[in-house]
Amino acid sequence: MKESVFFLLILPFVLQLKAQPANCEFKQPVITIHFGAGNVRDLNTDVSGNYERIPGSCPNDGYYSYTPYTSDCFGDQWFTLNEDHTPGDISGNMMMVNSSHKIGTFFSITLNGLKGGTTYEFALWLMNVCKISSPCPFPLLPNITILLQTQAGKSVAQFGTGEVVRREEPKWTRYTAFFTTPPSETTLTLIMINNNPGGCGNDFALDDITFRECIKPTPLVKTIPVTIPPAKQSPVTLKPLPKKPTPVPVTSKPVTEQIIKPKQDSPKYSTPELKPVPPVLPPAPRILTTRENILVKQIETEAGEIRINLYDNGEIDGDTVSIYHNNVQLVAHARLSQKPISLRIAVDPAHPHHELIMVAENLGSIPPNTSLMIITAGTRRYEVFISSSEQKNAKVIFDLKE
After folding, report:
1. What is the pLDDT at residue 59?
2. Which of 3, 116, 284, 372 is deepest in the core (most CB within 10 A)?
């Protein structure tokens, strides 16, 4: 049974996430967040106005809840879950998030009692609760960035889950990362941000955030055999080998109000590695948050320059558009015609993710506002037909191929 003191968490990181260190042995989890059982107090200390906690098992857009189950949510468009992720947990809660139409923070907590200069494994379990069978022509998927900051707001670490895909059946997925704490920081802030706005397909469950210390095994001391020479030979004086210092066991300070709940991970679950992500996008302007942003094309490409030309599609009827790149306006109130609006974007490891959003500023004389986008990425050429209105924007995403 979960108790009310479940809320502590320690997550120290450095700037670069790495694969599992060589010869790493794990201690039992020292911190576990499993969202309690029953009506517990809220974990969040500072979330944006885009999210709010409510009771119940089927929160609406922009809300989250702590619930042990779901049942017949939104006309059975969500999976029915009879329990949370924690094995053997009676009436234990998971965090259920129905994404807001505005991108923002859905989880934030202050972390105390860190150990400096120590390597850890961070892990959490996620599930997209939207069924593939749900009517959803342009699904938006959860894409979560996890940040660690000092109390002064300085970035300590940043990584992301990538898109959390929908599946045929309910399935929890474990995400992990390895990191080392800075030597002097003892208090950090953990922030989780959903980078995609709410819509069909962008709802998820979160549970069992754990923190395990990685320690190096003590090296074995080999015994060196000594051969005694025959008696007729000159005697050999054996000098004792210098004693090696006795390894000092590593101890951890007890952290108050912690719940340590070790458990074996089921082999049927996949364990993706969390990946470094670019800085969080700046706040979206109102025109992007008050309209639905429909994903019309997502392209993976090699590093290099992408060339984009935007034309009016069909009869020239006075359509005008504005174009936003990663929430920053590049083109304002430009008229579509047979002469292209041209853009160039550099895709490289330092800038792996790009979002272009076309906003209809008017609908011309023949609604809706339509255009043709010609994209040249390396040796590939794409033709994308864009349609936007006063209610819907059109989004194209470019990602660096791994």
Report:
1. 94
2. 284
